[in-house]
Structure formats: C-alpha cells, structure tokens
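Appendix B.2, paired examples.
Example (i):
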Amino acid sequence: MTITIRPATEDDLPQIRGIFEHYVLNTVLSFLVKQPPSDYIASRFREITARNLPYLVAVDDKTQIVGYSYASAFRGYMIGYGHTVEISLFCHPAHTNKGIGSQMIKRLIDLLRTTRHLTREIGYDDHALESDVKKVIAIMAVDETAPGEGLALRDWYKRWGFEEVGRLKGVGLKLGRMYSVQVTRSYRRLTKVLTASTPSISSYTYSNPGY
C-alpha cells in the first residue's frame, strides 16, 4: 500500500469525522464522551488552518483517508503561549500498526520547523501576532492498570524526540474509570534557517510503510 501525506481539505472532513468518532466512543484517546456535534470537526479544521498551522491527512492508493494529524495552538487565547503547539494524531482503526502514524508525525514535525502561525489574545481578535514554533507537546491518557502501565504511546513518542514532563493523576473519567493524563514535550530543536530545500506543505508519498 502506498501512502500519501497531504494537507487536508474540506472534502476530507466526513472521513476524518468517522475516524474521530470511533476514538471518542470507544477509547480514551479523547475525553469527549458523547458523539461530537456535526460541525465540531469542521470548526476545529477551520480554526487550525486559519492560524496557518498544519492539518494533514494520510491517504492510501484508493483515496481512502487512513489517518490524520494536526498541530493546534496551546492555550490559543493567550499570546504568551504562542511559541508552543499541541499535536494530535489518529489512525483509521483498520490501519493501525502499519507505520502510518510514523509517516504522519515525521511530516508534521518537519513542517513545524518552519511554520509561522497566528496567535491572538482573548478580547483582541483583530490584533494577531505571527509566531514560530519552539515547543511541541502531546497530551495523552495513561491506563496505569494496563500492561506496562499503558505507556506504549509515550514510548512511541519518545522515539520521535519527546520526553515525559508531567503527569496529572486521575483527572479524566471515561468508560467507568479514572485515568491519568500525561504530558510529553519535544526536546529537539525545531527552528532552523529557511533554505531552498525547506519542505513545504505539499503531498509526500511513501511506499511500503513501516517503522
């Protein structure tokens, strides 16, 4: 299977919504507990892209979306956090453990090295500043009763230059249980000098995906 990573479009949103709803209703990858409103995905997509942050989809050779990922503003109502973004990544439940997540996070991090996005302060929406990205965080639930304390996802992020920097014990309730939430942060330097070879937000194609 050949995978292409490209910017998401409005036409992709129904498939993205289907993937997201699976994780909302069946997992703790999101702490939403009910089916999200019909305009939730579209609203988030427009907010993220309006800030000039990347929102990507992974598409197979039959044009099915097999995953999506994006970077969103961290506490986006305060300019002081403008240099920090939070990343999210979801694979289609029928296409996990195929290396698709690795392809998406690699492309996402490559783009964030040169991203300049708009930051705003609450109450001053007409006064936006442009910021580069210095810190990238990922936040995830931890099932401490699972094998290995449920840290497989954290360990996967570590392979991409992230480190655990904090854990909030028992702050999330879903599926009848309390879960801790873990914060990981990239410790690799993201910013670099722009050159002619700097990647742009265009389609990247991968064959025989794997870790």
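Example (ii):
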Amino acid sequence: MVLKEYLETSKAKDFDQIVFWADDFHKTENDADKIDEILNKFNSLQGTEYKDGPNAWFLYTIFLKNSTTGESLAVSVMEDNWLWIHEDVLSITENKKDNITEMKYVRTEKYFKVTDGNIDYDYFATLMNSIDE
C-alpha cells in the first residue's frame, strides 16, 4: 500500500490538535490550517510499506489528535526518508446481554520508505518551531 492511500483511508479523523514530540520536549497547538498543511505534505509523498522498521534514528513524532475522541494519527519522521505511522482508533463494543459497553483504543502501525519525493525535514523543523508551547 502506498503512503497516500493509507493516510486517505485512515480511520482516525477530525483532528483538532497537533502535538510535536522530540527527545526532550513537546509542543501542542490547535490550528486547523497547520493540520491540513501537514496532511497535504504527507499526502504528497509516495512510499512503500515494510513489515519491519529500518535501522534509522527517530527525529520527532507529529501527532494529529482528535481531542474529543482521543483518536490520533502519529507520524514518526525518521532519517533516510523513513516514516513510522501509528494510528489509535477508539473501538466501542456493546454487550447488550450483560449491559456492558467496552471502550478501548486499537493501534495499527506501519513503516514506509518514501520512494517518490523526499521528506521535507526543513519544512517540519520550521513548522515545529512555529508552534507555541
């Protein structure tokens, strides 16, 4: 599956919060325009999915979150044009017999090697620096 198709079919939706996470800090902001900009930037890339991750360093992770549901799409930007995408989606199961509703987050993870285009590391560094803490 190519990266764009995966992002377009992501089950986590309606993001209203960005969280940039690096080794020693994180920044959070609610900005719909920046969220759209980030999604467009990732959607412009083509990549090949790999079962296992690379031997590359993590630079930072960009979480796009829905503050109402807690669902998120996180993209860990790595060296050498690698991305690790993990998605947390809220799953609600109703057991009508016992009158129990179970809520839990289900995580899916995928690794992508960007094969057409390059990760714009400067763009993401500038964007991260533009977010108020």
